[in-house]
Amino acid sequence: MATIKKERFEGFVDFEKKFVVSISLVATLFSLIGFIINILLDFDLAMKIIPVVSFVIYTVLYFWGKQSKDASVVKWVFAFITLIFMNLLWLNNYGSHGPAPYFFILLFSLLIFIWHGRYLLIAGGTLILNVAIIFYFDFNNPTFTPDYASESDRIIDVYTGILLYALIIFVMMSSAKNSYINEYKKAKRSDALKSAFLANMSHEIRTPLNAIVGFSNLLSSDLIPEEEKQTYIDIINENNDSLLRLFEDIIDISSIDTGQLEIFPEDCDINNLLDNLETMFTQVLEKAEKPEIQLISNKLSENRIITTDKKRLLQILTNLLDNAVKFTNEGSITFGCVDTEEALLFSVTDTGIGIKKSNAQYIFDRFYKAEDDQSTLYRGTGIGLFMAKSLTELMGGEIWMESEPGKGSSFFFTVTEP
Ligand code: ADP
What we know:
Blueprint: H1 2-40, H2 45-67, H3 72-92, H4 100-114, H5 118-140, H6 151-219, H7 226-257, E1 266-269, H8 270-287, E2 294-298, E3 305-308, H9 310-326, E4 332-339, E5 344-350, H10 357-360, H11 384-394, E6 399-404, E7 408-415
Parallel strand pairs: 2-4
Antiparallel strand pairs: 1-3, 4-5, 5-7, 6-7
The chain binds adenosine-5'-diphosphate.
């Protein structure tokens, strides 16, 4: 529950940040257009200086918001500065005779987009108080703000004001609508993936469980010769391991979701690790009845012992190699490591079925399985690559892949020492 709340809040912050950045950009353009109009209508000096100053300030806010983490300070500065500009505009742009009142409404709708909860109430309350004060002042001093030089000037100014106002509302509403549509699509996709995961899970659990129950029953039969019983015990052990790995993966996923997965750095001999993987996957290929696939391991020319989480590094490589075995029917699987200046670069390359471009963007998503080949059933839950990505990033590295359908895939990831 706490995580859901946190995620929802993070989603808001992300949207609010994006919004304040794009609206600062719109305000920059708005200031520029305002400046040009005021020059053309030959307004007084103040009305030419205000847009120039606002142009500079909003440009600064745009870049500041872009590089800040959650833009929380930028939001307050943005709202405060905009409120000052609104009042200056009201004062210099003919009070309630001109377009200034519309912009107060615009600022009010803006606040809804950049804040929520308590902050929205504070900011909204301040704005209403501000409008109430200028109303009181205007009501008691109706001649304080001068009138336009001519009625046609007023009409041009009010209507261009409305036009800009409509433009900004359009940008705001479209960005809110797009963000809503994207979130809706994401939620739908995640829901569909979760349902597919549950369906796969029941299959992934039932298959080894059936084997365990079936062969355990056979073990109690006196009719089965002893040497055959040993084969059954091996099958039961194998299926036990596969069940255990599945449960460990599920526990790991929930630890990642709750931010509780920890990294335990220790000494790790890279060439030794690659040697062990070579032995392990030679057996895996034999068991998968693919012994003709060539397994090539590229070790470091100068071995390194680095400080990293050995168990997790092995887990990433095992997940990638498991996939390479699963999705390759002939050719070779090459894996290894090279020492670049900045990091150790690991890779797993196969000559398997490859991944279509349209699927490539999703394959690191959790529960995602690209089911293009309907003629073959590839077992799996769609969590292997998600785990590999999450673990790599947790260890401070990056993961990516290159693939050509029908020719094969290469997965790369980097490991740096903490
Ligand atoms: P799983 O293998 O359990 O389905 P993964 O998260 O490990 O889940 O992989 C997600 C999907 O990415 C796979 O279903 C498969 O479509 C694709 N994929 C992963 N590795 C490879 C590979 N080496 N070759 C082809 N496709 C792959």
